[in-house]
Design a protein that fits this description.
There is one protein chain. The protein has 86 residues and is an all-alpha fold. The chain contains four helices and no strands. Helix 1 crosses helix 3. The termini are close together.
C-alpha cells in the first residue's frame, strides 16, 4: 500500500509539467470544485497527468480519472486509489 497522497501543490506542478498549464496551487485549494476547463486544462492534459501519476506510483488509475471535471474530484479519486492500491 502506498502512503503518499496527491496534494493540490503536486497537482499544480503536474498541470504545468504534463500539460503546460500554469496554475497556482492556492487557487486550486480555494476553488477545488472549479472545472478543469476554466483552469485551462483539457482532457488530453488530464490524460497526461494520469499517465505521469501511474508511472510515478506504479499503480493503474481507474478510467474515471480521465473523466474527472474538477481538481477536488481528481485528487479524491487518485488518493482513494493510492490508499487502497487498487
Amino acid at each position: 500500500m502506498i502512503t503518499t497522497a496527491l496534494t493540490f501543490d503536486e497537482l499544480a506542478a503536474l498541470m504545468k509539467q504534463a500539460a503546460g498549464v500554469t496554475v497556482d496551487a492556492r487557487e486550486l485549494e480555494k476553488a477545488p470544485d472549479a472545472p478543469f476547463t476554466t483552469l485551462g486544462l483539457d482532457s488530453l492534459g488530464l490524460l497526461g497527468i494520469v499517465g505521469e501519476l501511474e508511472n510515478r506510483y506504479s499503480v493503474a488509475l481507474p478510467t474515471d480519472a480521465e473523466r474527472c471535471k474538477t481538481p477536488a474530484e481528481f485528487v479524491g479519486l487518485v488518493n482513494s486509489t493510492l490508499k487502497t492500491g487498487v
